[in-house]
Amino acid sequence: MTLAKICGLSTPETVAAAIDGGAAYVGFMFFDKSPRNVTPGAAARLAGPARGKAKIVAVMVDPTDGLLRELAETLRPDLIQLHGRETPARVREAAMRSGAGTIKVIAIGEEADLAKARAFAGVADHLMLETKAPPGAERPGGNGVAFDWTLTAGRKFTRPWFLAGGLDPWNVTEAVRLSGAPIVDVSSGVERGAGLKDPALIEAFLGAARRA
Questions:
Q1: What is the structure's pLDDT at 19?
Q2: Over the chain (212 residues), what is each successive 10-residue block's mean pLDDT?
Q3: 60 - beta bridge partners?
């Protein structure tokens, strides 16, 4: 069974679909350029039913100390996902300021990019290998593009890792088979429009991941 994270949730219905479907992680986005952006207060309300059933993840891009503090006080996330240009030192500092575990996203476009994961191996609790954003993209992730999944086949990482980028209910089984990923992450692949999660697609994705 492959664990799964549903990212960019913004409605009670989709949070419920994630929990009912057995998601191990639920993610809330705090990045104003994303169509999935929510406020800390809204995320705290949405996360209520998930607490204790799935890990609550706050997804950010180069967050300020102020945002980390606000999220620690309102959302109280289990994990913070750092999607920007954070250094290992900043990842460590963000963990201290938020009181949460960390997921550091590594942008992958070619095999050489995997070497970047080493710098965070002793700092982040988890790694996420996400497709490198295409030129001109406003967002570092959530663009619905996959990288070559065979790049990670047979590789060992010192931290639990997520596979992200371009996953959907129809390809996640193959993605796990080729990549060897222990955890998968999806956002746009379970949407019917930008930022509009579909409960039926969430259910289908989680079912496919469970069988992978």
A1: 98
A2: 97 98 98 95 98 98 97 98 96 97 96 94 96 69 79 93 96 97 97 96 98 94
A3: 30, 82
Per DSSP bridges, beta strands 196-197 and 191-193 are: antiparallel
User: What is the widest separation between alpha-carbon atoms in the chain?
Assistant: 41
Question: What is the pLDDT at residue 137?
Answer: 60
Question: What DSSP string runs through 66-102?
Answer: HHHHHHHHHT--SEEEE-SS--HHHHHHHHHHHTSEE
User: What's the pLDDT score for residue 133?
Assistant: 76
d(CA 22, CA 63): 29
Q: Kindly tell me the number of DSSP H helices and DSSP E strands found in the chain.
A: 6, 10
The crossing angle, in degrees rounded to 10, of helices 65-74 and 40-47 is 30
Place of tokens 């990482």: 157
Q: Please enumerate in sequence order all residues whose Cβ is within 8 A of that of 207, keeping only pairs 6 or more positions apart, or say none.
A: 21, 169
Residue with tokens 């960390």: 102
Query: Cα(58)–Cα(8) distance, rounded to whole angstroms?
Result: 9
Q: Which two tokens stand for residue 99?
A: 């009181």
Task: Give the count of beta carbons closer than 10 Å to the beta carbon of residue 198.
Answer: 16
